[in-house]
Amino acid sequence: MNTSPSSIQDAHGAEAREPLSWSDPKGHVHQGPVLARTDHFSVIDCACCNYRHVLPLPSDEDLATVYSHEYYSQEKPLYIEHYLQDKDWWDEVYTERLELLEQYLAKPQRTLLDVGSGPGLFLAKGRERGWKVQGVEPSSQAAQYSRESFGLDIHQMFLTEQTAQTLGHFDAINLGEVLEHLPDPAAMLKLVRGRLNEQGLLCVIVPNDFNPFQNILRDHAGFKPWWVAPPHHLNYFNAESLAGLVQAAGFEVLHQECTFPIDLFLMMGQNYVGNSVVGRQAHGQRMQFERLLFKAGAGKLKRDLYQALARLGLGRELVLIARKCS
What's the CA gap between 156 and 166, in Å, rounded? Predict the structure, then answer.
């Protein structure tokens, strides 16, 4: 059964034991066993970085072209449309996430920066709850939508050492689906740490890839590793490697959980890989499940469940909250 593009090759077994080595422009040697290959990239379990990432890593210039203009128009042309269709569910997800941040911030007034703010629903919900908010978004389509639809303060740019100086400092910084796209996620964590107030909070969300369900589907159900998607996804984390990266950047991890294990639908025969119709159906069932929990006031049950999933390595995304160390 071919369930993923043929350009993605399986690399478990004998091939995975053969290490690959590559030196980046800073002189760091990235080396580790190959876990998957595409036409132009290999994914290794890197001994230098202590997380999985592609080789070779693309340049900052190459990525700037992709994310400034191409990402929403070419890679995700219906993303904003679907995002807005799901607005009621996203509002509940973001309310829950903001409540979690507020538990760790004993302040009546709070400031929030969302890096990679997309269409702006997270910032809009934060402002509604009394946060003073700003966003950084390289996509011209998403930045324009955020400004015109919600009147948000959005900086259309990449967050760099130079651009960060224009933003001030914040009580919390959100990196939602950001670190997997960057050639040097450790440098981004160092950068945002410098923009946080003392005891400031970091919220990170990344895909949970090479997780047990994905590996079972690959090894026993004929699936290719569909989650391997360079040059858009460069890094592949699990709960341990993400926590290690954040701690090494000068943060104390306060909370970890996962999101709904959408791979369950594949395990049960609903193959959404490469099928947007089935994918939307599966996502709709996931939303129905979570909205019933929200409606029932079972938020604690949901959180306990998703924290347990994180301990098992299961769930589609990893959610981590950390505090800046002194």
Answer: 13
